[in-house]
What we know:
The chain has 93 residues and is an all-alpha fold. The protein contains 3 helices and no strands.
Amino acid sequence: MTLRGEGDRNQSHDDAARTEQFVELYSAAHRSVYACVMTLVRDPSDADEVLQETSLVLWRKFNDFRPDGDFVSWACGIAYNQARKLYWDWSFK
């Protein structure tokens, strides 16, 4: 028998652990991801914009990340797509 609220506590604990895992991985990878972005856009202000968008996508899609995968490679792939999107959006302005 599950008490009311117990499932919520377990979910909350799982969410907290997942958040902590993301923060640890992203903190360790941040410089590498920024370097990857700089090779794509070269302008620091553009790189900051791409990095911010990349960070949001990484967080939103973190459940898709395989724990045995390479976080930096995964993040740089997303950064590449975000840089392409940025330049695609600019080409139509």
